[in-house]
Amino acid sequence: MNRFVRLAAVAALVLCPSVSAPAQEAPARQYSPEQIDRLIVHAQSGSAVIRPQAAERLASIGKPAADRLLTMAGTSLGELALLGPSLIEVLGRFDDPRFRALLWPAMEDAEFPWRPAVSRSLAHRPLPGEWDRLQGFLGDPIAPVRLATLDALALLSSGDGAERRARFDSLAVARLTDDNDVVRRRAAVLLDGRGHSRALQWLLVDLQRTDTYFDLPTGEAARYAAVNALQALDIDLAGFEAFLPPTTEPNQLALAKLRQRLLARASASESRLPEAARGLVPRTLPAIAQLGGPVEGARLGLLLKSCRRGDYYLRWTDDDQLIIGYGNPARVQLPEGTTRRLMAVADAAQEANPGKVYWGRPGCDMESFRMPRVGQPDARLQQLILSKDERPAPDLRPAALSALGAAMAASIPTDDALSARDPRTRDLARRVRGAFASIGGSVGPR
């Protein structure tokens, strides 16, 4: 992978939710209805850079823009969805209860396509009475929703009230075992701000990651994200460079210095906490946040990214292991011959669609199948991709790929012992089938 492509992949992996620029000061001049409508068009159909900027400008205008957006939002979730994610994400900045009355039903509807944007809109200025309602979304299947919910609860617990602060701290510690590393890092940073600086050891581990998901540099993305988070805390990184492997001598020296600095920070911060609040963050990282060993012999892969059901990273190896996730993934031993049988179905999928590698249209939903090329077992793995936007596409997936998806889902064990072993394996077969159904259609009973 050349340097440009690699950096693009890193940028795509570092953070799943978008981050908007701070709202601008209200402009001195008045905006005409035509100018407001032009900004709305830019926020809906401009480039990836222009859309959030136009939405932020609308938020800075105030009531004239709010009244126009309320008219467009209508009275149904279908009409609200037509605003698009950039506009929905700034509705909470208007401090208008009429928008909140629209946003909450969308947040609570699992089929609403822009729930990450809704969650960030609600999190901009959460209301004290929304605590219990928000807390329920810390277990949402979509990581950006969990992330925004964590931020919203942090804001609600930042004022007076020791009980609520302690309640939030416990919730944030629970997110240190989240199956998404972005959420884990955010929980660690928030806990550091509450005096639980031992949580920064989660970021120290991220600095040492080298894992990949096939050609996606997940470990390198984690290094960049951890560097950004630590720099935002004004922590001296001792010369650590995210673009270099952590095993290089300069990075090893930097990591040793940084480890001592973070230990000192943890000791100092904990000494200032009330006795009852000390020791809340465990000294030993859970398995999901530890460094993982290399994944050898991955022959088949399935990456599902659903804007309604979340993301799944699966691999099947030559020795019949199912690898779940990335970083330090969960590993499940499958019956002998499972991968070989799946590869035969993958061959049939390629032969049924010769030369075809992409179906659909760009959007937030994607299925990516990785498999050996027919007749070229030693070549780089073939990738077959289905993609679509929020609109249903019932005929998107060809029959042969549906057969492969069904076989992959059927190979995932469903026994209770497996579900108890690791949160990532809990109801995994059912959840994977649900993600398939939300993207390209059903691949079998859920």
Keywords:
seven-stranded mixed sheet; 9% strand; disordered N terminus
Q: Unreliable runs, pLDDT <50, ≥5 residues?
A: 1-5, 14-28
Overall pLDDT = 91
Radius of gyration: 23 Å
Secondary-structure-based class equals alpha+beta
Main β-sheet description = 7 strands, mixed
Helix-strand sequence: HHHHHHHHHHHHHHHEEEEHEEEHHH
User: What is the overall shape?
Assistant: globular
Please give the share of residues in helix. 40-55%
The first-to-last residue Cα distance is 38 Å
List the quaternary state of the chains: single chain
Count the strands?
7
Beta-strand percentage range = 5-15%
Strand order of the largest sheet: 4-3-2-1-6-7-5
Structural notes for this entry:
This protein has 446 residues and is α+β, with helices and mostly antiparallel strands. 48% of the residues lie in helices and 9% in strands. It contains 19 helices and 7 strands. It has helices spanning 3-14, 33-45, 50-61, 63-73, 77-81, 85-90, 97-107, 115-123, 131-135, 143-156, 162-174, 181-193, 201-206, 218-232, 249-271, 338-352, 399-410, 416-421, 428-439, and strands at residues 298-306, 310-317, 321-324, 330-333, 358-360, 365-371, 382-388. Strands 4-3-2-1-6-7-5 form a 7-stranded mixed sheet, covered by helices on one side. The longest helix has 23 residues, at 249-271. Residues 1-5 and 14-28 have low confidence and may be disordered.
